[in-house]
Structure formats: structure tokens, C-alpha cells
Design a protein that fits this description.
- The two termini are 14 Å apart.
- A two-stranded antiparallel sheet has the order 1-2.
- The chain is mostly helical and 183 residues long.
- The chain has two domains: 116 residues, no CATH class; 62 residues, no CATH class.
- Helix 1 runs antiparallel to helix 4, helix 4 packs antiparallel against helix 5 and helix 5 packs antiparallel against helix 6.
- A hairpin with a 5-residue loop joins strand 1 and strand 2.
């Protein structure tokens, strides 16, 4: 393949993967932190003290068990002020956990939507007769597989990671063999 053809294949690959990625970003929006926790996030320790900290000694540690339980459940302890201006434990806010769960679900869904599209692009590249475009589609499909797997990778179990990468590797080896058999 000549340099011009190689560059054109690379451009087709990048543009195809970019198109798919931007399309799904436009029609299937990622969860936003602000939708779960507001603009300021959970009400954690506040910076201001109307009363010097010495006069509020141990006030916010009255509920140490509740704070520890909140932390163990991946929540954020929130605090309010009492009548003396001292911080006191209010409740446990789970907005960060809820956002994290929504983000995990979003990444999983993207994986199950974009991976098959990547495989389809690779298969199109396998059977398309115009070599420059075929190579571009194949590489674009590979980029989509890498992208979708990368998005969901940290949320997968260790076994699932190995399984997914193994399946993708076997698929790519099979396609490479098919491509070589055509020549």
C-alpha cells in the first residue's frame, strides 16, 4: 500500500470511529454529576465557622457510628450547623454513589452498542473490494472495539476483562486469516 493510500485508510478509520462516537454522544448522553449531586455536590464539611472551632469541640463526631456506616456504604456524610454555628452530622448523601452507578450502566450500554458496530465495520472491511476503504473500515472497527472496551473495562470483573479481550483477539485473528486467504 502506498503512502497516500495508507493515509487515506487511516483517515477513513479515524473519521468512521469519530462519527460513531459522536453520533452516540449526541443521541445517548452520559450522566452528569450535577444531575445527581447538584452544582456543589453533597453538603460535606463547610469552610466557614461562625464560632471558632475550639468552642465546637467534637460536636460533629457525636454520631461517629453513623458517619462510619455512611462511609462504609459509599455515601458522603453531610453536615448542617446547630444554633451555636457548630457543624453537626445531618445525614448520609448517596448522590456520588448513584452517579457512579449510572456512569457504570452508561459505559456498559455503550460497550454493548458500539462493540457490535465495530465488528460490523471490521466485517465490511473484510468483504469490501476497494482496498483503501476496506482497510479504513477495518481499522475504524478496531478503534471502536478499543474505545468501547476501554469505556467499560474498569467496571468489568477480572474474569470478564480476560474473556472480552480474548474474544476480541480471536475475532481479529480470524479476520486476519480470512483477509490473508483472500489474497
Amino acid at each position: 500500500m502506498k503512502v497516500k493510500e495508507l493515509l487515506m485508510s487511516l483517515a477513513i478509520a479515524i473519521m468512521a470511529a469519530l462519527f460513531i462516537g459522536l453520533f452516540f454522544d449526541a443521541v445517548y448522553s452520559a450522566p452528569e454529576y450535577e444531575d445527581f449531586c447538584g452544582l456543589d455536590g453533597p453538603r460535606a464539611f463547610k469552610d466557614r465557622f461562625e464560632v471558632p472551632p475550639e468552642t465546637c469541640e467534637n460536636v460533629y463526631f457525636v454520631s461517629e457510628e453513623e458517619i462510619a456506616q455512611c462511609n462504609s456504604e459509599e455515601g458522603d456524610p453531610t453536615f448542617d450547623y446547630d444554633e451555636n454555628g457548630c457543624q453537626v452530622y445531618s445525614d448520609c448523601n448517596y448522590c456520588s454513589k448513584e452517579y457512579s452507578n449510572a456512569q457504570e450502566e452508561y459505559n456498559r450500554n455503550l460497550f454493548f452498542i458500539i462493540s457490535p458496530i465495530g465488528i460490523i465495520l471490521i466485517l465490511i472491511g473484510l468483504f469490501y473490494s476497494f482496498e483503501v476503504a476496506a482497510s479504513g473500515f477495518m481499522f475504524g472497527g478496531i478503534l471502536l472495539l478499543i474505545y468501547s472496551t476501554g469505556r467499560y473495562f474498569s467496571d468489568m470483573s477480572k474474569f470478564m476483562r480476560v474473556f472480552v479481550v480474548f474474544i476480541e483477539l480471536v475475532l481479529l485473528l480470524w479476520i486476519a486469516k480470512k483477509k490473508m486467504d483472500k489474497k
